[in-house]
Specification:
The complex is a heterodimer of chains A (217) and B (260).
Chain A (H helix, E strand, L loop, with lengths): L1 H45 L3 H16 L2 H16 L5 H27 L2 H9 L4 H31 L11 H12 L2 H30 L1
Chain B lengths: L10 E10 L2 E11 L4 E5 L6 H8 L7 E6 L2 E2 L7 H7 E4 L11 H12 L4 H14 L15 H13 L5 E5 L7 H16 L3 E5 L3 H7 L2 E6 L2 E6 L1 H6 L4 H21 L1
Parallel strand pairs in B: 3-8, 3-9, 6-7, 7-8
Antiparallel strand pairs in B: 1-2, 1-4, 4-5, 9-10
Helix pairs in contact in B: 3-4, 3-5, 5-6
The chains are: A mainly alpha (217), B alpha/beta (260).
Bound molecules: adenosine-5'-triphosphate (ATP) and magnesium ion (MG).
Adenosine-5'-triphosphate binds next to helix 1 of chain B.
Chain lengths: 217, 260
């Protein structure tokens, strides 16, 4: 029995790893887009312009009030139906997770920008920096430092949320696991394995974030 | 006053008014500042001193009247605020050095990125200025490694390295421990002697008297009295100014009593 389990595990490993790579790819793309988009989105929120504020607010509320799963379904099944846009399930997953991640990182970035004292802007302006230069040399570098720990927390949430994409047919690690279970019936072993994978991905990040949080302040 | 009557003012404010929403913070401000002149602004807390300074380099915009800086008319829509700020230096109460940059990079940011000067030229000037305020050995330190007085002297150097025509000082010693106040005031005094045009907001009465060519006394957003320091301190004209000075003398006498 023991041996059988081990053998099964070895046999299923390539398939699980393939799924894991898919999970990681979705997470990586989403994290990259979220970070770039989120910083811009956060910076935009600090600019006081009514139409811009309403727009960013609207976008934010869309992702706060509608579950990710519903977004996944909407993009995967709704886009072809209503707009005749066909995306692969992988692309849909990255799109939805990125759009959501942008709001999350955006909030982190906004907080970071706003926590920089107004005096920094005053000082930057008083030496003649243009707004772009002010962000580039003064506000952005300071915000970035403060953003790192909370952003890592968002990254772990993105990684965990990739598991939802199984429901629009992405063959990520959970799906790979399910396929093996269907074939062999070894639910406990395989789910245990998934448990371990997610833990292995997210725990170091969460420790890192806590460490950095202490060292940056 | 030290200026030559024929010279034209560097800054000329006519009927300047400023309000935040409905609250009037500055009204009817008329003021001309001539090259080389040191103007000290005194007044109770909240009377609009900081706001007045901030209007001069466009950190706030006026709602009424006009400000002329040399040949330029400074209106809120004036497109060249950056160019104006290059020529008007400002030093703040809480220094506002850039914490993520070394001292030398704090100083060089403006000259290199705004004025596009050559690195050699700007660096040479920065080091000379650091030497002058006695902080050349701190050129590679980060702001957090410096005392308040040192940070404030660096902030002054940062403004000076832009070669401004006017320097604005907003209560630059108010956040400092008493023993550091002197080192900063000495730098300012030295600047004044070298002929820098300065507008200074301060609560250091002794310093005001020593450095000023002219005292402006503000209350509730208006300049209600002005004159040379000797006559202002010995015989203030308005009751408000008398009461204001009285408070300072009282504190001085407390200090005397403590010593005894
Ligand atoms: N950004 C702002 N928004 C709204 N009100 C402001 C703003 N800045 C200043 N004020 C108000 O304007 C008035 C004048 O403020 P200001 O800072 O110019 O006074 P001050 O003379 O410099 O006082 P202090 O000696 O305490 O520094 C105050 O009543 C203040 O509350
Ligand atoms: Mg003030």
């Amino acid at each position: 029995m023991e041996l059988l389990g081990l053998e099964l595990l070895l046999q299923s490993m390539p398939q699980l790893v393939k799924g894991l790579i898919q999970t990681l790819m979705i997470a990586c793309y989403s994290i990259i887009f979220s970070t770039i988009g989120g910083i811009v989105f956060g910076a935009l929120q600090t600019i006081r312009l009514l139409w811009l504020n309403l727009l960013t607010r609207f976008y934010l509320e869309l992702f706060r009030s509608i579950p990710i799963l519903v977004w996944l379904f909407f993009v995967y099944f709704g886009l072809p139906l209503f707009f005749n846009v066909h995306l692969s399930s992988f692309a849909c997953a990255v799109l939805v997770l990125s759009l959501w991640g942008i709001t999350e990182i955006g909030e982190v970035a906004r907080g970071a920008f706003q926590s920089i004292a107004r005096g920094q802007s005053d000082a930057g302006r008083s030496i003649g920096l243009r707004t772009i230069q002010l962000y580039r040399y003064i506000l952005f570098p300071q915000a970035l430092r403060r953003m790192i720990p909370p952003s890592i927390n968002v990254y772990t949430r993105i990684i965990k949320t990739t598991s939802l994409t199984v429901l629009i047919g992405v063959t990520e690690v959970v799906k790979a696991g399910q396929q093996i279970i269907e074939r062999t019936g070894e639910a406990i072993l395989i789910y245990g394995c998934l448990f371990f994978f997610y833990f292995l991905l997210c725990y170091p990040l969460s420790v890192l974030s806590r460490k950095l949080e202490k060292s940056i302040i | 006053m030290t200026h030559d009557a024929a010279a034209s003012p560097i800054l000329k404010l006519m009927n300047v008014g400023k309000s935040f929403r409905k609250q009037v913070v500055l009204k009817n401000i008329h003021l001309s500042v001539y090259p080389g002149e040191v103007t000290v602004i005194l007044g109770p807390s909240g009377c609009g001193k900081s706001t007045l300074l901030r209007c001069l380099n466009g950190l706030e915009f006026i709602n009424e009247g006009s400000i002329r800086f040399n040949e330029l008319e400074l209106t809120p829509k004036c497109p060249q605020w950056q160019a104006v700020r290059e020529r008007i230096g400002m030093v703040f109460q809480s220094y506002h050095l850039f914490p993520h940059m070394k001292v030398i990079d704090n100083i060089l940011l403006g000259p290199l990125k705004v004025q596009k000067r050559s690195k050699d030229d700007a660096l040479a000037q920065a080091e000379e200025l650091l030497e002058r305020v006695g902080l050349l050995d701190k050129r590679d330190a980060y702001p957090r490694e410096l005392s308040g007085g040192q940070q404030q002297r660096i902030a002054i150097v940062r403004a000076l390295c832009m070669n401004p025509e006017v320097m604005l000082f907003d209560e630059v010693t108010a956040a400092l421990d008493p023993e550091m106040v002197k080192e900063v005031l000495e730098v300012m005094l030295q600047l004044a002697r070298q002929g820098m045009t300065m507008i200074i907001v301060t609560h250091e009465m002794g310093f005001a008297r020593a450095v000023a060519d002219r005292i402006l006394f503000m209350d509730k957003g208006s300049i209600i009295e002005q004159g040379n320091p000797t006559s202002f301190f010995s015989e203030p004209q308005t009751d408000r100014a008398k009461r204001f000075l009285q408070q300072f003398y009282e504190i001085e006498t407390w200090k005397g009593r403590e010593v005894i």
